[in-house]
Design goal:
By secondary structure, this protein is mainly alpha-helical. It has helices at about 5-10, 10-35, 40-50, 50-60, 65-75, and strands spanning about 95-100, 100-105, 115. The chain has five helices and three strands, in the order αααααβββ.
């Protein structure tokens, strides 16, 4: 027998094969969750398709970065009336006075009120 087949026929080879078979769907599930995709669907795909599904989910675009790119495109494609395409204080979210809690800003993505001192939204994690 050649070296690879002899390893697979040994007890160590069987352990390595089972570890690979279990690690691939778990890693695919984790990557899918980080990218915003269904973890259950990618778990089963990686279980049955193995490394091919793992390569597919690693190459898939991140859903949250896709939203951020659309927002950046929207901001820079419609510049303010001054003609400049740079972000300016005029493009910042409005900060309103709240007599009970102080100043706050409203998240454009989820509509949650956040304190003016916070840079990221408490509800969805997006930045001002």
């Amino acid at each position: 027998m050649s070296g690879v087949f002899a390893l697979l026929a040994s007890p160590l080879g069987v352990v390595i094969l089972i570890a690979y078979w279990l690690a691939t769907p778990l890693l695919g599930r984790w990557v899918a969750g980080e990218k915003g995709y269904s973890t259950g669907a990618w778990f089963w795909l990686c279980l049955f398709l193995g490394v091919f599904a793992l390569i597919a989910i690693c190459g898939a675009p991140d859903k949250s970065s896709e939203f951020q790119l659309k927002e950046l495109h929207r901001k820079f494609s419609n510049p303010p009336s001054g003609g400049s395409s740079q972000l300016s204080p005029q493009n910042a979210p409005p900060i309103a006075a709240d007599p009970v809690k102080g100043d706050f800003w409203v998240c454009k993505k989820c509509g949650m009120k956040n304190r003016a001192a916070e840079a990221a939204c408490k509800g969805c994690g997006s930045y001002r």
